[in-house]
């Protein structure tokens, strides 16, 4: 059985990398159902100047091409936005583990309504990291979520 909290560690490490680079601290990782890491990444919108380079997108791209994604698990430190929720649905990713949805509640409920298995951890470290970032960089946060 998969330990969701253990998988979150990889995504959290990615979020911390993004923060250290001057970006938005959201991290993600794609695993198979045996817990093997396929790809990891973090939000690099600021660093790369690419508005589409969200954490889930980065992890997905780094995982490489697969014929089928139903047996994969997307782990993300923050509830996925609509863009990233669309990626999960488009490619049929079977499960999403969400570090927290306190600071931002994206599309995880919509994904659940469409058959994606959702595990919401409400991880204290994820909440604290985003709460601190939002307080320190509201301009960048609002840009990221489309509230310019």
Structural class: alpha/beta
Run of helices and strands = HEEHHEHEHEHH
End-to-end separation: 42 Å
How many strands appear in the DSSP assignment? 5
What are the segments in which pLDDT stays under 50 over at least 5 consecutive residues?
none
Mean pLDDT across all residues, rounded?
96
User: In DSSP terms, counting alpha (H) and pi (I) runs of 4 or more, how many helices?
Assistant: 7
Largest beta sheet, briefly? 5 strands, mixed
Query: Cα-atom Rg, whole angstroms?
Result: 14 Å
The backbone outline, from C-alpha atoms, is globular
Helix content: 40-55%
Strand order of the largest sheet: 2-1-3-4-5
- Give the amount of beta strand, in percent: 15-25%
Report on the architecture of this protein.
It contains 7 helices and 5 strands. With 148 residues, the protein is of the alpha/beta class. Helix 5 links the parallel strand 4 (95-98) and strand 5 (117-120).
């Amino acid at each position: 059985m998969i330990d969701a909290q253990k998988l979150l560690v990889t995504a959290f490490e990615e979020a911390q990398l993004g923060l250290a680079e001057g970006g938005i601290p959201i991290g993600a990782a794609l695993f198979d159902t045996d817990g093997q890491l396929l790809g990891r990444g973090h939000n690099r919108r600021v660093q790369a100047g690419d508005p589409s380079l969200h954490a889930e997108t980065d992890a997905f791209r780094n995982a490489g091409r697969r014929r089928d994604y139903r047996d994969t698990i997307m782990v993300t430190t923050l509830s996925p936005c609509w863009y990233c929720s669309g990626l999960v649905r488009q490619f049929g990713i079977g499960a999403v583990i969400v570090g927290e949805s306190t600071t931002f509640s994206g599309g995880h409920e919509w994904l659940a309504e469409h058959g994606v298995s959702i595990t919401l951890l409400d991880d204290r470290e994820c909440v604290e990291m985003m709460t601190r970032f939002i307080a320190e960089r509201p301009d960048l946060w609002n840009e990221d979520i489309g509230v310019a």
